[in-house]
Amino acid sequence: MNQDINTTEFRGVTGWHPGIISTRVADLTAASYDAKTHSVETVISRGVPVKRFFGTETLRIHPDSVIMGRLASPGIPVLDSHQQSSINNVLGRVTKIWFDKKSLLGRLQFAATPEGQKAEGMVARREIGGVSAGYRVEEWEISDKEGNVLDPENDRMNLNETYNFEAIRWEVLECSLTGVPADETAAIRTLGEMAWPVQSVLGSRHANEAITRMLVRQRIARANSKIQS
């Protein structure tokens, strides 16, 4: 039996929280290490599709879509495996972000701390090459398997179908070095949560609630944006 999602309802869902920070592993390892500047250039993201518990997620790689305001202030840190609990986990900072075709690239500069120097040495010796971005989505564009863009205010969504959620406005919060190989399916997780199998854990009802919650958050973000402008 088909189940429809009523986007006008607001219901909570286990594993989905307001202000959620998502992560994904870059699809290329770090390259271009420069010993003089203690920096390295890397692919932050190519926006490739990944499986989430609410559907398939992609990131739009475009200057109009990626919010990089933190680059100037307060800065985008380079962390040890997304750990935010201590300043000892700060390995450096992102000094530059730019676009190359459909890739989001960045320059990471290592800190002059024991932790930063250790990470720099491991990168220089190619002992570690995994890079993972931490980001927050502000606005989604939802489409069905035929590529038709849906209006979440008016269109109803069928839980028996798979939808693509493209982040058309998202903010880079941090960039992490990780020992996980550069494979999106190997370390896709939500910060502070376990990896979520799409249906086995949440089930169709929770997937329904997750999508509903996400759409409500999008409406709130739009309303706040209008107030600030």
Model description:
- The structure is a single chain.
- The protein is an alpha+beta fold and 229 residues long.
- A hairpin with a 2-residue loop joins strand 9 and strand 10.
- The protein contains 2 helices and 14 strands, in the order E-E-E-E-E-E-E-E-E-E-H-E-E-E-E-H.
- The strands form 2 sheets. Strands 2, 3, 4, 5, 6, 7, 8, 9, 10, 11, 13 and 14 form a 12-stranded mixed beta sheet that branches. A two-stranded antiparallel ribbon has the order 1-12.
- The radius of gyration is 19 Å and the shape is elongated.
- The model is unreliable at 1-18 and 181-204 (pLDDT under 50).
Which overall shape is indicated by the principal axes computed on the Cα atoms? elongated
What is the beta-strand fraction?
A: 35-45%
Number of helices: 2
Q: Average pLDDT value?
A: 75
Cα(first) to Cα(last) distance is 44 Å
Seen as an oligomer or otherwise, the chain set is single chain
Output the helix-strand order.
EEEEEEEEEEHEEEEH
Structural class: alpha+beta
Helix content: 10-25%
Q: How many β-strand stretches?
A: 14
| Main beta sheet | 12 strands, mixed
Low-confidence stretches: 1-18, 181-204
Provide the gyration radius in Å. 19 Å
